[in-house]
Design a protein that fits this description.
Beta-Lactamase; 4 domains; eight-stranded mixed beta sheet; alpha+beta
Length: 772
């Protein structure tokens, strides 16, 4: 049976359906909305907390950086102030003529300053004639004194070494020393001012280390000029910067106004070789991308605190002038922002993870609430449906009780009102009553009602040999309930029959008399079998009162007819391809033509995998063997039309003006094809995965398409033959009543039952068994 789903279910109240959906939405929406609101609140609190803590941490970091800058400024100022005081002391403490007879006093005073002021490396004394005295630390806490006598007389350089007590422990001359103080920056800078003079960063001539010198001039009463200088190495400042902890990975450097490095955490960073000479680096020559970025921002925007983004990571930078150093020096600090605010994000993530436990608990409670609410609604709905079912069943019992013929044992067939009432009460798509005959080997349909079409059919027979699994469980008295007949081993064979009607679910309740199964009541595609099972059992008991005992039923006989010789095959043009045009059709007339007496056979394969199986005796697969066999059978039987379309093969005859032999040709071919397919499938050890249907009625055909033109056949004969194939039992040939009427004199048939055919109505079908 071919049916379609209703567009509108008249049994359902649209307003009630809307209310039910709205109620379910509230049941689900309110708990889920509460959980969503909780999640949103937690996220909002987490975001606010993160922003507030981050801003607080950044404010504290600014205070920390300001404190570090003050500490560095104090360290630098204190480091340089001692040297400046030493110069002032030397300028005012030493009498005139310090480079002559007062040399012992210079040595004593210098030794005291070197011991008391550790940042002083050298003390220098020079006059305008190039005479020079250098005092520096020596071994064993002594001092080394270099005396350069440049005039009057020849140049002489002498090194004098003293121990910690001031006793001379060595003396030597150095004729290779070419040092001239008058060319040095500290000397030149002090000549032009009476104030202290600070040099820029340079490499000390003697120690070969970077440093600066503070110097001053002094002119005596007789007009002679003397200059005093104190050398300060800056490696101590670099060591100091290396000891300062700024977050986990922050760093600080000291630069001058031109970007020259004064001090860095690693003193070796500020030196490099240029033409064989040591020189100091600029900050943008270090190769440190963060320091370079911070210095560029400083040159554009000036000193201050700011945040820069380098390679996707944020850094806090601070550049502050060192006001107490007497130079245009600045402190530059860079530190990753995560060093100060990373703990905020980490703590926030931990808090969110801990909040997940609360969210999870809330979600669990919400799901339980939703589940309980839906269960309550479902229970209420089931109760209403059960009450409605009880009401329908009560009304049905009252209706059935008013039918006097229902309980009359003389009636051999069940009342049609019984199957109709059964279908309407249970809302099944189809309801049917079946009786066993021939000792339980045949299951015959007494009456079947289709609720969608409102039609009744009867006479369909199912045989034990065709459905052994179904008969085994049915005769055992089992109630069979399956949602999909194709997936249950008890009804897998029956699926082919149900599928032809467009149904797949089945409820089978046995009909018993004296503990013997005599039939069954079937419901197909029932929406709720639990609420209707008791009613079906009651109907089964009613049916048992009037159903015959299968052991006493006469065996079903098959329709036979007078044997007559088969009609001679007419000589008709044939083609084994679909683009054949029958000879009776004018080749120049390409319009569609009507063939009123066409016989059509449809061979249908139900298992695509079975068609690909290769046979042991030949490299061909089953589909190839069947196609070759069909070509030969079509040639032998004079079939003019043979077409393969997917998993179906269509054969047709009767294109001539008189097609009386067409049905015989198709029937002979169908039997030959059946036997050929059975042999091939048995050879491959597979079940009969094919069905055959035949019909004799009107068809249309004509050439279609551009060159080469293709002959196509369509119409009722093709469609009904396809329906017969789809509803046939596996391995059998099912014929319509029209085909039976034409072939019953020459072929052996057995009745199959009644089918509902679109545009035709209820029609009998037969199984083609053999030729007489």
């Amino acid at each position: 049976m071919i049916s379609s789903k209703p567009v509108v279910d008249l049994n359902v109240d649209p307003l009630d359906e809307v209310r039910r959906r709205r109620r379910a939405l509230l049941r689900i929406g309110i708990p889920l909305g509460g959980v969503a609101l909780m999640i949103a609140t937690i996220l909002l609190i987490a975001f606010y907390s993160y922003r507030a803590n981050r801003d607080g941490a950044l404010a504290l970091s600014n205070d920390l950086l300001a404190t570090l800058e003050q500490r560095i400024e104090m360290e630098v100022s204190g480091y340089l102030a001692s040297a400046a005081r030493a110069v002032r002391i030397l300028r005012h403490a030493l009498p005139d003529g310090v480079l002559g007879d007062q040399l012992p006093l210079v040595e004593t005073l210098s030794a005291s300053l070197l011991r008391e002021v550790p940042q002083i490396a050298n003390l220098s004394f020079a006059d305008e004639n190039g005479n020079y005295v250098l005092v520096r630390r020596g071994e064993l806490r002594g001092i080394d004194v270099e005396v350069i006598e440049n005039s009057p007389g020849p140049r002489r350089v002498t090194w004098v070494h003293q121990d910690a007590s001031g006793n001379e422990i060595g003396r030597e001359d150095d004729s290779t020393d070419t040092y001239d103080p008058r060319t040095r920056p500290w000397y030149v800078g002090a000549l032009g001012t009476d104030e202290l003079s600070w040099t820029g960063l340079y490499i000390f001539f003697t120690q070969r280390v970077p440093g600066i010198t503070v110097s001053a001039r002094h002119r005596t009463a007789d007009g002679r000029l003397y200059l005093f200088g104190v050398d300060i190495p800056l490696d101590a400042l670099s060591r100091f910067l290396g000891s300062v902890e700024i977050g986990r990975s922050g760093r600080a450097v000291i630069i001058d106004g031109s970007g020259q490095l004064i001090a860095a955490p690693s003193g070796d960073q500020i030196l490099h070789q240029t033409n064989g000479e040591l020189a100091t680096l600029r900050v943008d020559q270090l190769g440190d991308e963060v320091l370079t970025h911070a210095y560029d921002r400083f040159r554009i925007e000036g000193a201050g605190h700011r945040v820069v983004d380098v390679a996707g990571q944020r850094y806090i930078t601070a550049v502050t002038p060192i006001t107490g150093a007497g130079h245009n020096w600045s402190t530059m600090i860079v530190v990753p922002e995560d060093d100060f605010v990373g703990f905020v994000a980490s703590n926030n993530r931990r808090a969110l993870w801990m909040s997940l436990a609360i969210v999870g608990l809330a979600a669990l409670l919400a799901s339980l609430l939703v589940r309980q609410g839906l269960r309550a609604d479902r229970a209420a709905r089931l109760l209403l449906e059960r009450q409605s079912a009880v009401t329908r069943q009560s009304n049905a019992f009252a209706t059935l009780a008013s039918d006097a013929s229902l309980f009359d044992p003389a009636q051999t067939l069940p009342s049609r009102a019984l199957t109709k009432t059964l279908a309407e009460v249970t809302r099944a798509r189809r309801s049917s009553i079946w009786g066993l005959a021939d000792g339980g080997r045949i299951l015959s349909c007494k009456d079947s009602f289709d609720r969608e079409t409102g039609g009744h059919v009867e006479g369909l027979e199912l045989h034990h040999d065709e459905l052994p699994a179904l008969f085994t469980h049915l005769l055992a008295g089992e109630e069979i309930e399956v949602a999909d007949a194709a997936r249950d081993r008890r009804t897998a064979e029956l699926h082919q029959v149900l599928n032809a009607f467009g149904t797949k679910a089945l409820l089978s309740v046995p009909v018993r008399r004296s503990d013997q199964v005599i039939g069954a009541v079937w419901l197909e595609d029932t929406p709720d079998t639990a609420g209707s099972r008791d009613f079906v059992r009651a109907v089964a008991n009613m049916v048992a009162l009037r159903m015959a005992d299968p052991s006493s039923s006469p065996p079903a006989h098959e329709h036979k007819a007078i044997v007559q010789p088969p009609a001679a095959h007419e000589s008709v043009p044939r083609s084994l391809v679909a683009d054949l045009r029958p000879g009776s059709i004018d080749p120049s007339a390409l319009r569609a033509e009507i063939y009123r007496d066409t016989a059509v056979m449809v061979l249908r394969f139900t298992d695509a995998a079975a068609m690909a199986v290769r046979l042991s005796r030949t490299p061909r697969c089953i589909s190839d063997e069947i196609a070759c066999g069909l070509q030969k059978i079509a040639a032998d039987n004079g079939i003019p039309y043979l077409k393969l379309t997917g998993h179906e093969i269509v054969a047709a005859a009767g294109f001539e003006a008189t097609g009386s032999a067409a049905a015989t040709l198709i029937a002979d071919m169908a039997l030959a094809v059946r036997d050929h397919c059975i042999a091939l499938f048995e050879e491959s050890a597979r079940t009969h995965e094919f069905q055959i249907g035949i019909d004799c009625s009107l068809a249309l055909g004509g050439a279609v398409g551009s060159e080469p033109r293709i002959f196509n056949l369509w119409g009722d004969a093709v469609r009904i033959a396809g329906t017969m194939a789809a509803s046939a039992l596996p391995g059998t040939v099912q014929a319509t009543e029209a085909a039976y009427e034409r072939l019953r004199q020459d072929f052996l048939f057995r009745p199959r039952g009644s089918f509902y055919l679109p545009h035709v109505g209820a029609a009998r079908t037969f199984v083609l068994a053999a030729r007489l």
